[in-house]
Structures are given as C-alpha cells and as structure tokens.
Amino acid sequence: MKSFNTRTAQLSLLPFLLFIVLFLGSGLILQAQGVERAFQQLPGHVAIIPSLILAAWLHRGKLTESIALLVKGIGNSNIITMCLIFLLAGAFSSVASATGGVDAVVNAGLQLIPAGFVLPGLFIIAALVSLAMGTSVGTIGALAPVAVGFADQTGTDPALIAGALFGGAMFGDNLSIISDTTIAATRTQGVPMKDKFRENIKIALPAAIIKALLLVVLATDAGTVSNEPPQWLATIPYLAILILAVAGMNVFLVLILGVLMAAFQGMLLSGYELSALGGDIASGFADMHGIMILAMFVGGLGEFIKQQGGLQWISGVITRMAEKASRKGNRAQQLAIGWLVFITDICIANNTVSIVVTGEISKSIAEKHNISPRRTASLLDIFACSAQSFIPYGNQALLLSATFAISPWDAVTHNYYGFVLLFFAIGFILFGKSLKWDSS
C-alpha cells in the first residue's frame, strides 16, 4: 500500500472542511438573520468551488496536472453512472407528476385512511409514495398541502402531522430502489440494489412499525378525511417499477420503462399530450442538475484527497478507534462506518452527498474487516437518512416549516422515526447476526 506523509494527508482534508464551513456556516448565519430558505442561498454545488480551488493549490503541482486530477475524479465510473441514474429518476418523477400519477397514488392512499387515524395513515401514505418516487423532498412537496388540510380539518397539532409526513418520507427515501441515497450507497459499494434492499428492510421495517404504533397512540383526531375518488389504474407505473426493480431488472431499464408507462397511462386516462413528453423529461433532468454537479465536484475533491492520502489517514484513525473499542468481530467497524456517514451528513445536510463523500473510505474499512458490501451499503443509507432526520437545516425540515408555518426545529423534534431508526440500526449491529463478506 502506498505510504503518505501524515502532514500532507491531514492538509488534504482542509478543502473538505472549507466546504462544510461555507455551506453550513452561511446557512446558519442567514437563518439567524431571518433570511428565507437560508440554506438554499449558497447551494452546495456553488459552495464547493472555493474548496476545489484550495485543493488544487494544496496539490502543489502544475495547473494542468491539477485539472487532470479533478477531471479524473469527476469521470469516476461510479460518479457518472450515478449521474445518469439521477437523470432518469428525475425524468420519471417529472413525467409521473405531469400525467397525474402522483395525485393518483396520493388519492388512492387517502381513500384508505380511517377516521381518527390521520397520523399513522399519513405516515404510511408518505412511506409508500416515497418508495415509489424515490425522493423524500418530492414526497413532502406532493403531500404537504393535503396534510395541512388534515391538520385544519381534524384539529391535530400541525407539528405532529409534519413529523408523521417527515418520518414516512424518510422511510421511503431510505428503501426506494430509485432513491439517490440508494443509488449512491449501492454504487460506491458495488452491490446490487436488491441485495441492499433486503438487508436494509430488516432494520427499517421494524423501525417503521414502531413509529406507526406510536402514532396510533398519539392520534386523537376524530375528523373524517375527505378526498377525490382515486384512479387506481394510474398507480400502475409506480407499482410496476417497484416490482421490476425488486425482481432484479437493471435500474436503467426500470426507469426508462417507468417513464414510458407513466406517459402511456397519462395519454390513456387523462388526455396527456405526447408532445409534452420531451419538455417534462427535460424538466426532470433540470431538477437533478444541482445534485449531479455537486456529486461530480465531490468526486473531483475526493480524488485530490485520495491522491494525497487524506482518505487513507481518516480510514486509519477510524479503524484504530474501532479496534480499541472491540478486539472481537467487526461490530465496532460497522459502527464506525455508520457514525462516519452520520457525522458527515450532520455537517453537509445532504444524505446523498454524505454517502458519496464517505463511500470509498467505508468500502476500504469493510474490505479490511470482512464486512459484506450489502451490509456496508445498508449502513451508509440508514445512518445518513437517520442523520437527515435530526437536522433543522435540511431540505425536508425547511420545506415542512414553510408549508405548515412551524419552526424547522418543531418538524425535526416531532419526527420520531429518525430516532427509532438509529436505535434499531445500532441494536442490529451490536446484537444481530454478523454478515461477513461474500463474493455472491
């Protein structure tokens, strides 16, 4: 293994710390000043640019060499594959929304809510919609207006309604085959999505059941929820992509088929014009441009850090800490992987990016300590999504705050799912079966 100067390795992390300071610090300052959407005023894919400049300077090579290193990181096959899938996922969400598929799924779920069970009902609906859409923010955006009406109609505390929606959206985002967190976790670890799903659900499903039961206890509303009659046929594209993806079909084919099926059902049921398909696909692509650019820039920044030994140094520190905690098995190393991505997400406020940033380090730890790739991918996604549930400056909390006219802190503290998920994840590592590396 190539050796690195410790000082150089440590300095290579400065650009990453600068990114955190710029992105997180500007958001906190603007929020304190009362600026709306404070954490969106300096987007991550802009905040990272000074960090890339600093990384190039610390590289101490010719400018052409630094640019070549940046391009190498951006062109990493995992990064490019993720970006292509991001595009297709955005296209599917956009076309499905334009053709009425999102509304159909929402109305179909609302039809099933019994009177007096708005909280657990909304949690389950949000979980199902997020599973289909693959985005927690998109799910909140689709359901929040209806959820506000629930609060007004039933007299339920808006913060409880927001927390139920928040938790369900994160459950689906964590498990969905087309979620960007799933894409990032599976691609960085080189594991099929269906394997990660099967490993992930062992932890997420029990946590969701506990959250739903807790919401049943908290549900004191007695109002009747009214909604439009559902169009069950319009839900077929969502159900189809879930079934095909879990069955093991290539994710590119799944998403392409999803776009085509959504467009077809729109033309068949709601008079959707085929001429609008291109524009809707382009709109879906545009929705993903920020996360794509940031993912590519993170890949470039990671290449600088890797070339100068920063990743190796971090891995060594975490491994030594884990080995001091436990000399038997690899449970301490699994916890180290989880806490690494958790802390990173607390700083960055983006669970996908936190997975991309820590993916290579985690893979190195997993390979060294005989941890299965599907376990590692599952831990990355679970701990990142759990962390996202704790931060009041995340996109989910800010969107709920604006829609429900509550503080982001209220949205976070009433989202009990993040706490339950973290508890189950730690317990699963400490007391569950140790899943070791296999080549299958």
Automatic annotation (TrEMBL):
Subcellular location, principal: membrane
UniProt keyword Transmembrane present: yes
Location in or out of the cell: Cell membrane
UniProt entry tagged with the keyword Cell inner membrane: no
Residue ranges annotated for the Na+/H+ antiporter NhaC-like C-terminal domain, each copy included: 27-218
InterPro entries assigned: Na/H_Antiport_NhaC-like_C, NhaC_Na-H+_Antiporter
Membrane-spanning parts: 42-58, 79-100, 112-133, 203-224, 236-264, 336-357, 414-432
Record keywords, A-Z: Antiport, Cell membrane, Membrane, Transmembrane, Transmembrane helix, Transport
GO cellular component: plasma membrane
GO molecular function, one term: antiporter activity
Recorded topology in the membrane: Multi-pass membrane protein
Family membership: Belongs to the NhaC Na(+)/H(+) (TC 2.A.35) antiporter family.
Protein name: Sodium:proton antiporter
